[in-house]
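ok, trying the design again with the full structure, not the truncated one.
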């Protein structure tokens, strides 16, 4: 198995840097080959001015080769750092990640199918706040809702299987004991990354959605918001 580990943090000596070392080592020791894409150190240009470019083609090939995509980043203003957003903007191009036609109907494949179907996608996210604030009743919103644009609107939209985020909270105050636990948690998570259940987003199909791409009244009746688009 082959993984592409995309890392977006300005400081290699940070907690994020240590988690990257632990994660890539865990995959390697489990028999994976790992391609590390360090956006800051590689000097990736995040500005989308013209489509394509040699750097885009290179990274598309790196993504195409991966069975697993890991995106690691600190949560800044409830989103990804700008350099990672720019990487997505430039690399996930039309015809590569989306707007890929269904060979039978000619319609674009999306939401569960698409140019990146068959891959799994895991986010490794650090946040300075406490875990409860990013939980189901937390003031910041549940982490899966906070990252909806990435998990559902990017990963699932392009056909990848999104996995629940691997969230590390209170990242600004990590004791040696806590660090040991974080290392064990991430290692254990990666050992089973290809067998764990994906987030249960609904496929965009006639069974679930009408021609306006709105849920049928019979699907999740009375339920509104993001959770309605999850099975069960």
């Amino acid at each position: 198995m082959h993984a592409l580990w995309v890392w977006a943090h300005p400081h290699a000596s940070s907690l994020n840097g240590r988690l990257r070392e632990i994660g890539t080592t865990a995959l390697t020791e489990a028999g994976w080959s790992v391609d590390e894409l360090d956006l800051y150190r590689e000097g990736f240009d995040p500005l989308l001015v013209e489509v394509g470019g040699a750097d885009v083609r290179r990274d598309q090939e790196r993504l195409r080769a991966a069975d697993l995509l890991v995106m690691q980043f600190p949560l800044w203003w409830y989103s990804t750092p700008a350099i990672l957003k720019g990487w997505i903007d430039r690399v996930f191009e039309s015809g590569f990640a989306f707007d890929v036609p269904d060979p039978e109907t000619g319609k674009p494949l999306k939401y569960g199918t698409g140019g990146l179907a068959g891959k799994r996608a895991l986010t490794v996210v650090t946040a300075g706040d406490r875990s409860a604030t990013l939980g189901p009743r937390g003031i910041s919103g549940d982490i899966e809702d906070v990252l909806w644009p990435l998990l559902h609107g990017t990963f699932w939209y392009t056909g990848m299987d999104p996995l629940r985020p691997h969230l590390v909270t209170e990242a600004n105050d990590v004791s040696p004991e806590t660090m040991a636990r974080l290392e064990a948690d991430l290692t254990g998570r990666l050992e089973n990354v290809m067998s764990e259940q994906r987030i249960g987003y609904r496929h965009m199909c006639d069974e679930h959605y009408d021609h306006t791409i709105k849920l049928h009244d019979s699907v999740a009746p009375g339920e509104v918001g993001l959770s309605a688009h999850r099975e069960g």
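Keeping the full-length input from now on. Residues 96 and 115 are 6 Å apart (CA to CA).
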